[in-house]
Amino acid sequence: MAELTGARWRTSTRSSTNGGDCVEVADNLPGLVAVRDSKDRDGGVLIFGPAAWRTFVASTRSH
Predict the structure, then answer these.
(1) Is the pLDDT of residue 62 over 90?
(2) Integer Cα distance of 34 and 16 in angstroms
(3) What tens digit of pLDDT does each residue of 30-59 get?
(4) Higher confidence at residue 15 or residue 22?
(5) In sequence order, which ranges of 1-63 are alpha helices (DSSP H)?
(6) How many C-beta neighbours within 10 Å does residue 36 have?
């Protein structure tokens, strides 16, 4: 995917270090936030707008 060129992927600091279920996020790209499965890096990628991503993260923190 051309718009993901230059993506800097990171995992959450809350992710397990023993091979647990993790997602990686690239939020350094203009106008989008990309999310992928850390165990399937060549698999699909979900793309969010920055506002939608902030709303999602805020809602998960409140639960």
Answers:
(1) no
(2) 20
(3) 999 999 998 898 889 999 999 999 998 899
(4) 22
(5) 50-61
(6) 20
- Sheet with 10-11: list strands edge to edge: 10-11, 23-26, 33-37, 45-48
Residue 19, sorted as left (phi over 0), alpha (psi -120 to 50) or beta, turns out to be left
Q: How many helices (H) and strands (E) does the chain have?
A: 1, 4
Pick the closest to residue 41 from 28, 53, 23, 57 (CA basis): 23
Question: pTM of the entire structure?
Answer: 0.79
Q: What is the mean pLDDT of the chain?
A: 85
